[in-house]
Write a structure and sequence with these properties.
35% helix; 505 residues; six-stranded mixed β-sheet; OB fold (Dihydrolipoamide Acetyltransferase, E2P); globular; alpha+beta
C-alpha cells in the first residue's frame, strides 16, 4: 500500500544539455551511502543469499491438506503497477442482514523465514523495506519477497486468511483466522481501479474475461465506504501530506511525482485497518502478548490549538480528536492547496507513530489519528518485520501453542523497530532532497512560487510548487510563517548533502 496516483512535475533539463561540469552525481551511490549513514546495509550478507537460494518454492501436498483450499474464490490484489512484493489479496461476499463478509489473505512469510535464521536476523535488523524512489532496498531478498511468498496471479500460494464482517452501520465484527491455499485471480492497479470507481465508465479490465470482477470491486468499494464513514464518526484524522518521488530514466532524474489519493487507496487502507484490528482481537481473545501500533495523545496539543487559531478556528483546551478532525475537514475544503502543509504541521505536533509491546489483558494507548484503540501491523510481512512477528503470534494462536515471544522480547523488538522505522524515513527523506537537488541544479538563480512548510529556531523551510521540492530559506527568512505563500530565488543545490537553499524575495 505504498503508492498513489502520480502527478508529474516539469521535466528536468536532459542530461545531454548539461555542461560537463554539471554532470549529475550518481544517485545510486548517494543512496547506498545514505543507507550506511543511517545504520542500514545496502546489500544482503552472503549467508542470507545462500539461505534463500536453498528454499523450496513448491507447496508440499501435506501443507495443502492442512490448510483450507480457497483457490476458487475471486481473489484480487490492488497495488502499484510495478509492485512485485504482493502481501495481500482480498475477496468479499454479501451476507444476510446487509452484512458484507471480507476475507483478506496475507502471504505466509513465516513459513519460509524461520525465527532465528540468518534471513530472519537480517530482516529484524533492518525492520522494513526502504523505498527511496531511486532504488528500493527490500527487507527480504527479492527471490523471497517478490517471487516465492508474493501473491502473484495464477500461482498457488500459502496464506493466512483473516475474516471479518462489515455491518450496515460500518462497524466490523471480527471473524475467523486460519491458514489457506489461495490463488490471486487479478493483479489490479491503484490509479486504474480508482478512476473507474470515481467515473463508472467502461470497465478497464474487460480483457481479463472475469465476468464477476466489476461486481466484486463495487462490493469491496461499498464495504470500504461503510468502514470509512463509521471511522469518520469516531473522529479519524483525514491527513494528506505531499511526498514527491523522483522519476528515473536511465539513471537520471527527469521529474518528480506527487502521490495523490484515490478511492482504490482508500479501499485498501480501510480493508487493512480492519484486518489488523481483527488480528488484535484474536490475540486478545487468547491472551497472547503482542506489538501494537500506536499514536499517543498529541504531545503538543497546545501547538495544534495555536495552529487552528491561526486559521480562525478554536479547538478545546484538552485533546479532542473529533474537534481536530472537524477542523481538518473544513480546512481541506477551504484551502486544498495548502492542506498538505497543514497536515504535515499537525503530524509533527502530534508526534510519530510507534510500536509498543502489550501484555495479555493490558490496555492499549490506541491510535489517536485512526480513532481506534486496537491496531497493529500484520498485513505486510514481506515489507515490515513487525508483521512477521504478528504472523508468528497468530499462527501460534491458531495451533494453540505457546507464544513464540514473551513480553520482554517484544518490548526490545518494539523499541528497535520504532527506531529503524524512523531511520528508514530519514533515508527516504534525504533521497527525495538529493533527487530534488539534482533536478534543480541547472536552475540556480531562477525564481519560484512556494509555501512555507516550517518556521522554527532550527530553520525556515519552504516547498516550491513546480517542481514540488522542499528546501531551506537561508536569506531574508525572518517573519515567515507556516502556510504563507512566498516568492523564492534558488541560491544553491548540493545533491550529496541533500541541500536546496532559497532566498526570499
Amino acid at each position: 500500500m505504498r503508492g498513489k496516483t502520480p502527478t508529474a512535475s516539469s521535466p528536468a533539463t536532459p542530461k545531454s544539455l548539461l555542461m560537463p561540469s554539471q554532470k549529475p552525481p550518481d544517485l545510486r551511490k548517494i543512496a547506498d551511502e545514505a543507507m550506511e549513514r543511517y545504520g542500514f546495509s545496502p546489500t544482503f550478507p552472503k549467508r542470507v543469499i545462500s539461505e534463500v537460494k536453498r528454499l523450496n518454492e513448491e507447496i508440499m501436498p501435506e501443507e495443502i491438506q492442512s490448510a483450507r483450499d480457497l483457490r476458487s474464490l475471486l481473489w484480487v490484489s490492488i497495488d502499484n503497477h510495478d509492485t512485485m512484493d504482493i502481501d495481500q489479496i482480498q475477496f468479499c461476499e454479501k451476507r444476510p442482514n446487509d452484512e458484507i463478509q471480507v476475507k483478506i489473505a496475507i502471504a505466509d512469510v513465516d513459513h519460509l523465514v524461520s525465527k532465528g535464521s540468518a534471513t530472519d536476523r537480517h530482516a529484524a535488523k533492518h525492520g522494513t523495506s526502504i523505498y527511496t524512489g531511486v532504488v528500493t532496498y527490500p527487507m527480504l531478498p527479492v527471490r523471497l519477497s517478490e517471487d516465492i511468498t508474493s501473491l502473484h496471479p495464477n500461482r498457488d500460494k500459502l496464506a493466512i486468511v483473516i475474516e471479518y464482517a462489515v455491518l450496515s452501520d460500518g462497524s466490523i465484527r471480527p471473524g475467523d483466522i486460519y491458514p489457506a491455499v489461495v490463488r490471486n485471480k487479478a493483479k489490479l492497479v491503484y490509479e486504474v481501479v480508482g478512476e473507474w470507481l470515481e467515473e463508472q465508465g467502461i470497465f478497464p479490465y474487460a480483457d481479463l474475461d472475469i465476468a464477476e470482477l466489476p461486481e466484486q470491486l463495487l462490493l469491496q468499494h461499498e464495504a470500504a465506504e461503510r468502514m470509512k464513514a463509521e471511522r469518520a464518526e469516531q473522529g479519524f484524522l483525514d491527513l494528506e501530506t505531499i511526498e514527491a518521488s523522483p522519476v528515473m530514466v536511465e539513471g537520471n532524474v527527469t521529474g518528480l511525482v506527487i502521490q495523490q489519493e484515490s478511492p482504490a487507496h482508500s479501499l485498501i487502507e480501510e480493508f487493512m485497518i480492519s484486518a489488523n484490528r481483527t488480528l488484535v482481537a484474536r490475540l486478545n481473545e487468547q491472551s497472547y502478548p503482542m506489538i501494537q501500533r500506536i499514536v499517543r495523545t498529541p504531545r503538543n496539543w497546545q501547538g495544534i490549538v495555536e495552529e487552528a487559531a491561526s486559521h480562525h478556528v478554536r479547538l478545546p483546551a484538552d485533546p479532542d480528536v473529533q474537534a481536530l478532525a472537524s477542523f481538518l475537514i473544513q480546512q481541506k475544503k477551504k484551502d486544498p492547496e495548502s492542506f498538505p502543509d497543514l497536515s504535515l504541521t499537525v503530524v509533527k505536533l502530534m508526534g510519530p507513530g510507534e510500536y509498543v509491546a502489550i501484555a495479555p489483558d493490558e490496555d492499549s494507548v490506541g491510535h489517536f489519528a485512526l480513532a481506534v484503540t486496537d491496531y497493529t501491523h500484520g498485513t505486510a510481512p514481506n515489507r515490515r518485520y513487525v508483521d512477521i512477528i504478528i504472523q508468528r503470534l497468530i499462527k501460534a494462536s491458531i495451533e494453540r501453542k505457546t507464544s513464540p515471544y514473551d513480553v520482554d522480547e517484544l518490548s526490545i523488538l518494539a523499541e528497535h523497530l520504532s527506531a529503524t522505522e524512523k531511520a528508514a524515513k530519514k533515508v527516504e527523506r534525504f533521497m527525495r532532497k538529493a533527487a530534488g537537488a539534482i533536478l534543480l541544479m541547472d536552475r540556480v538563480g531562477e525564481t519560484f512560487m512556494g509555501l512555507v512548510t516550517g518556521a522554527s529556531e532550527k530553520g525556515t523551510y519552504a516547498r516550491i510548487i513546480d517542481p514540488p521540492v522542499e528546501g531551506r530559506v537561508v536569506k531574508n527568512e525572518d517573519g515567515l510563517k507556516v502556510g504563507q505563500r512566498v516568492q523564492l530565488r534558488l541560491l544553491h543545490t548540493d545533491p550529496e548533502k541533500g541541500f536546496i537553499d532559497f532566498e526570499r524575495i
